[in-house]
Write a structure and sequence with these properties.
Layout: H1 3-23, H2 37-60, E1 70-71, E2 86-92, E3 99-104, E4 110-117, E5 127-132, E6 143-149, E7 157-159, E8 164-172, E9 183-188, H3 201-226, E10 237-238, H4 239-242, E11 256-261, E12 266-272, E13 279-286, E14 300-302, E15 314-319, E16 328-330, E17 336-344, E18 353-358, H5 362-365, H6 375-393
Length: 395
């Protein structure tokens, strides 16, 4: 390939990439997408935020010969019903090779690692094997070694299949300020002195094409999936009640999801007796299946932070304005979206009950002994979140 041909290849690849990105501007105008200024803007922001995720998946960390553990999501890059309590870390692998992961497990309340096969979604297909935190042998200082391979190994071993293409670590933090994230590295055994190929116009052009394709597919996939809950708002149903495609879902607990649509003068009351389990959470987000900004907004609660009634009941209120109760989910300007409840490693999965009411009737609809909070309490509640995010993501 001569210099002129390479220049043409690069220019055409870049032009195609930009055209594809421009065309994605139609996604926030989907037929069922909410049309408020905040919701519409969130659609464009979702595209821009996930461009770097697509780069990681389809370009920077694509080669399973040279794997790297990388974070999927952060407060400013997320999709697919990300859990506000979670740090997601993973690597592209080859299901026929052997990998070694070493590091410190950290101290998150819930911990798992999955081997994921290729499939019919942007995130691949089904989980073929998984290990939970209590199944992973660690030293007193938290250090561990894990072998990822098709063939059995002594010690910690995660089995892969020929179709395995990714491994994913999930760390759910109950106490954001005090639980610590995993620190680890991955290497492919038998790699010898191999190094990645030098940069080339052909590889770059192919990578750009993959990046734009994955970005478009993933950004369209999640709102289309969430729309399956939209015809039955305020009713909690699991993913598997509405979808049969295998996906890299969190093992050990089937999330219960409901769709909400809330005018500014209404509120949603959600009540349930939480399961007695290792970890549980309440998550909250917008139409694009993206969590609300959990640095500065009340976008979730969990088994550590939630305030329960004296009889153990969890009462959550969703509204546009502060209702003065501890377990508030802040709509943050969005007009519709989702709420998810997770009961992890539980024998029982209580189904929450939601009631939509006028904001003017909220006080009468809540129990007389509902716990209340003042402005100082709320201020510290939000400050705790900010400190916790700094602890988890290290900035």
């Amino acid at each position: 390939m001569n210099e002129n041909t390479e220049d043409k290849l690069l220019l055409q690849a870049w032009s195609d990439f930009c055209d594809s990105l421009k065309a994605m501007g139609r996604i926030p105008f989907r037929e069922m997408a909410p049309g408020t200024p905040v919701d519409r803007t969130a659609g464009f922001q979702q595209i821009l935020r996930n461009l770097s995720l697509s780069m990681d998946f389809e370009y920077e960390y694509k080669n399973p010969k040279f794997p790297e553990l990388a974070r999927y999501f952060s407060p400013t890059r997320k999709q697919g019903g990300d859990n506000s309590d979670c740090c997601y870390v993973g690597a592209q692998v080859n299901g026929t090779d052997t990998y070694r992961i070493t590091g410190n497990r950290g101290s998150s309340r819930y911990f798992s690692v999955t081997a994921v096969e290729t499939g019919d979604t942007p995130w691949g297909g089904k989980v073929c094997n998984a290990l939970f935190g209590e199944q992973i042998e660690t030293e007193e200082d938290g250090s561990f070694e894990l072998i990822v391979s098709p063939d059995p190994h002594p010690g910690n071993w995660l089995q892969t299949t020929p179709n395995t293409f990714r491994i994913t670590f999930r760390q759910y933090f109950a106490d954001w300020e005090n639980e610590k994230p995993m620190k680890a590295r991955i290497e492919r055994l038998g790699a010898g002195n191999e190094v990645p190929d030098v940069l080339s116009p052909q590889a770059f052009a192919e990578g750009l094409s993959r990046v734009s394709n994955w970005l478009e597919e993933s950004i369209e996939y999640w709102p289309a999936m969430l729309e399956k809950w939209k015809p039955t708002p305020n009713k909690f149903m699991s993913y598997w009640q509405l979808e049969d495609k295998g996906i890299d879902a969190t093992p050990g607990g089937d999330p219960l999801v409901c769709y909400w649509q809330l005018p500014k003068d209404e509120a949603l009351i959600i009540r349930v007796q939480p399961a007695d389990c290792l970890y549980w959470s309440v998550e909250f987000g917008n139409y694009y299946w993206e969590t609300v900004d959990y640095r500065y907004r009340l976008s979730n609660t969990n088994c550590h932070y939630a305030t329960l009634q004296d009889d153990g009941e969890l009462i959550v209120v969703v509204s546009h304005t502060d209702p003065g109760v501890p377990n508030w989910l802040d709509c943050s300007g969005h007009s519709e979206g989702y709420v998810t409840y997770r009961w992890m490693m539980s024998e029982h999965h209580p189904v929450p009950v939601a009631e939509q009411v006028k904001l003017s009737e909220l006080a009468d609809k809540l129990p007389g002994d509902i716990k209340r909070v003042d402005a100082d309490w709320r201020r510290e509640q939000l400050a705790t979140r900010r400190r916790g995010v700094n602890q988890r993501f290290g900035y």
